[in-house]
Structure formats: structure tokens, C-alpha cells
Amino acid sequence: MLLTDNETKVDLLNNEAIAATIVTLLRDRPDRPVTIGVHGDWGAGKSSILEMIETGLEEQDGVLCLKFNGWRFQGFEDAKIALIEGIVTALIEKRPMLNKAVGAVKDVFKRIDWLKLAKKGGGLAWTAFTGIPTPEQIQAVVATVEGLLADPMKLATKENVESALGGVKSLLKPETETKNVPEEVHAFHEAFDKLLKAASVKQLVVLIDDLDRCLPDTAIETLEAIRLFVFTERTAFIVAADEAMIEYAVRKHFPDLPDTTGPRDYARNYLEKLIQVPFRIPALGETETRVYVTLLLIGAELGENDEGYEKLIIAAREKLKRPWESTGLDAATVNEVLGARAAQAHNALTLSDQIGPILATGAKGNPRLIKRFLNTLLLRQSTAEARGFGSEVKLPVLAKLMLAERFQSRLFDQIASAAAAHPKGRCEDLAAIETMVEDEQLRNATASAEKSTSKKQSGDGNSKKPSGDGKDGVKFEVMAKPTAESAVLSEWLASEPVRAWARVRPSLADVDLRPYLFVTKDRKDYFGAASALGHLAPLVEQLLGPKLMVQARESDLRQITLPEAARIFEALRSRIMGDDSFDQEPPGVAGLTVLVRTHPVLQSNLLDFLEALPRERCGVWPVKGWEGIIKDGDAIARLDKLLAEWSAMPKNSFLKSAAANALRARRGGR
Known about the structure:
The protein has 30 helices and five strands. It is mainly alpha-helical.
């Protein structure tokens, strides 16, 4: 069960109000040109609103709606001309009667051709001061095309070149063509207006989507194309884009703006002059988020085309009309609308209640982030079921952990590392903070109740004002701290976001978190050596440290059992061999020494380790330091044999010499 992440005409966000407002605005003045902006962050629902607008205009007589995606023009050398041609071409395709209006069609395309040639000679920037291209600029265009004759590989035939050259030179004929760019733009407006009349189009509505995903140059070219139509009657543009991204594109496109102008102010003014009517999609609040999450999950269970689900959406919209007075979709509403099928929605309601508040804050009210969070949640549960431990993964627990993973990654790593090292997969600091915030909530609730009672009694004149330090005499206690808290717990207690997360139900204090960490391995694997070692992992890390630190751990090593000592030995051996560096004594050898001294039964394991060393690449460190460590008869015999083998090896003279000296010293001391 996955949630689709495409634009949709099914409104779960109550954004239909924005779409309906825009449609009404377009209906009221169809003859007037207008540009409307639908602004919102990435994933806020801009594309879905465009879909709703298109649907709302489908049945309007004389209204033609064309939709363009900004990415469509990303690869074009001139996105501006491509969009203009695209609009005209789409208009002709949508209105077959234009096949008879040959003159109007030819006139429009002639104006577009002129714009293309103007672009080749320096663009519409000619009009920056005078609006008239200089003779030198026009001659540059001519010279450019004439130069193609010298390289016939650039065009297929000489005739093509001469034809193109003739088209450019025709610009210089004052009796047939104007040379003033503003006049040509005005001529384009008139030609396009005639084309709309010939097509019986009372209003042309062009929807521009994904402009904020384009490269800066493409975004600006598209906006410049829109400006060309701004004064064309009966033409409306609706641009869906993130304002911040467009402002960034403007600043990148005009990098040399003077400091006195202010690049940021110029970018904002540029967009405001182009967009006459801006609409900004509001972020979802807590109530809207809970309704959205509930509808998404129920829709995934029942299907978007289910009759009961459609009725539930209608009921949700009623709730969202006054979200400040609503707590979202409750069980009573769901039961009333879905009837016998309400049981399928209970898990969705529970999950929405649990994660809605923090998801609203963590996702900053962004619908796409919310949807992707839910998709990851459902996918991970499905993965657990496919691997055979789905019964050990409860959605509410997984959702709470994923809230930390997605929005407070440091907190999640701290919890995961502690749980992976715990023999029962728990995090003791997490249990502590959950207990403390629960106590804090209880104290605050009690204080509020006492405050309310105090006010009532004071009003009756029958009670003295209670003593205390708080307002109205009520003493509010701060959250009590344990007498000995860890550094991690202190960090958590100082963070209000962490405390807010800890208040989310269910409690994770007594939950084995290892199955949940396993399904989050796509982010990081917490099940390496630390998982196998459990609570011994910190001790292993200390035994990999400097010799002084290792020596200080000897008393701790005496407290562990033999199986635990064997696990520590294997972890150290694995780390040493895995580092594959033996010219100097590797970290961990000192830890092996202390470990074997406190647990002599591991002497055989130590000899196995020494015998497996790559003797050709070892320094002299393996031959010394074993006095008082290797002392059993069999172990001593194995060490003497190994030293003899090293002393006879031909390829490592340093180890050979050191082994020979050590062997003589050992024999002389007996």
C-alpha cells in the first residue's frame, strides 16, 4: 500500500477554495489580460491546484486552457521563443477551424520568425534605451548568415542559406517591415488577437507549471515570454512557482546589478511586476495535517474511488471550513460516514492522532514531505512483514522513531546506538526522559486544575488565595531532574523539540527497538559488531584505546563472564585484522594482553591470533610482551615453535632477528 506522489484532482487539502477563487476571477473579466501567481514551497500542492483550475474551466464556453511544464523547454537554446511557438501551435491544434484562417496563422508565425531573427542579432535588449536596432546590429545578423556560405557543412544546401539570408535582409525594407522592436511586438499582439478571434476563443488560459525546477536562464526566458503576452486581450497566465526560487533565478540572471539597487529587492520587484494577482498556498496547521494524514491512510485502505471515501472527503472539508474550531476527523465522524467499513479506518485515526502534531511541525505543513514520510513508514512495515518479523513491528512505534529519524537525526542516532548495544534492545535514557516529561505533564495539569479551582473559590469569597510562586498564587514546578543523569539525557532535557517528541505516544521505554532499527538499515546499519556485543560495545572501544586507558579497564574485565570475554576477544581480533596494518603495534593488541591476563583460558585464542598474522608484513612487536600472559605449558610450547618459525623466515629480516633474540632469551632464562 503506497501513496501516489503525483498532482491530483482529488482535493485532500481544501485547496479547492484557491482554485475556485482563481476560476471566478477569470470568469469575471475574460476580456482583460491577467497574470496570476500560485506560490508555495516545493511540494505544497501547486500542481494539484493547476489541475483543479483546468477542471473548473473545462465546461466554460469559449475558454481554452493550455498547460505547459517549464521542464519541457529546459533543453531549448531559446526557451522564450519555444514557449511562444508552443502556445500558438497548441492553440491551432485545439481549434481545427484555424486551418481555414490561413492568413491569421501565417501572420502570427511571421511575427515569431521576426522575433527569432531579432534574438540572433542581440535580442530584444535592443530596446533597452531606444527601442531601435542599430544598422551595425542588423548588418551583424546579415554577416552571420552570409558567413555560413563559407562552411556548407553547417546547412544542407546553398539554397537554404540564400533563403535565410533573404529573410533577414527583408527586415531592412522599410516599405514592407518595421525596424522598431516595440512596433513588432505590438504587431505580434494584434496578430495573436486576430488568431484568437478566428478560433472563437473568448479567453485563453495558459497554465505554467514547474518553473521553479528550471535552471535560472530557462525560468527567466519563460517569464520573458509571458511578458510578451501580458498586454494581449483575453489572455491569462497562471504561473505556479516558489517565489524564493524565482527570485534566485532573477539574481543569477542579472548578477551585475549595482549595490544601490539591491539584487534581492530587484528580484522581488521583477516578480511582483509580472504577477498581478498572487496567491500563496498556506502551510498545513496541526488540524489540517491530521485530517490530511487520516484521509491519505484511509484512501490507501479503501481506494480513492470508493464511494464511502468520497463522502468522507466531503465531511473533512466541512471540518476544515473552520479549522480553529475543529480537531480534525474523529472516530464518530468516520463511523457515521463509513458505517460497517469504519473498522478499516481505525488504525489510520490512531496513527493520525499520534503523529499529526509533530508531523505538522517537523514537515512544516508540507504535503509532499508528509506523503513521503507515510510512504516510507508503510514500505518499512511491508518489508518487515516480507522478512518474517512483521508482528514485531507496530506502526505507532515505527512512526515515532521515524519522526526522530526524519526531523531530529542526532536524537535518532543516539537512541539507535544505545538500543543496539543494550541486551534487550532498549535505550535507558529514553525511558528516563519519557517518564520525566510524563510527570511534568501531570504536574502542569494538576497546577492548571488548582488554578481554575482557586479562581472559582476567590469569586465566591469563600477561600483564601493559595500560597505559591506562580500566577494567582499557584506554584508551577519545573520538571524534576534525576540526581545522576547522563550527558545524553542532559542534552535531551535542554531541548524542547526532543521533549515534545518524547511526549508523543506510545512510550518506547519498554520496547525492544532492534526490529525497528533493522528496517531502518537503508539509512545506517546499527547491526555490526556493536549489535553482537550489546552492552559490551563501550568496553571494546575502550580496549582499542591507548595503553594507559586499557590498563585502567582491568578491574572491569574481571567482572565479566567467560563467554563475554570470548566475545570481546573476537571483537578486538576482528578489528585488528580488519585494519590490515601490522608494521607497528595495532590498536587493540594492548587490550588483548590485558584481557588474556584477566582470563587465562583465552591463551589458546591469543596463539591462534599470533599464528594468523601476515609475518611478511609484521614489525617486531609480536615477539615481545607475553611474559606472564602466556604461561600454560601447551601455550608456551606453541609460542616457542612460532618464534622459531619467525627466526627462520627469509623475507622479513627485522622480525627474523627479533624472534631469534627473543627465543634465545627465553631458553636462557629457563
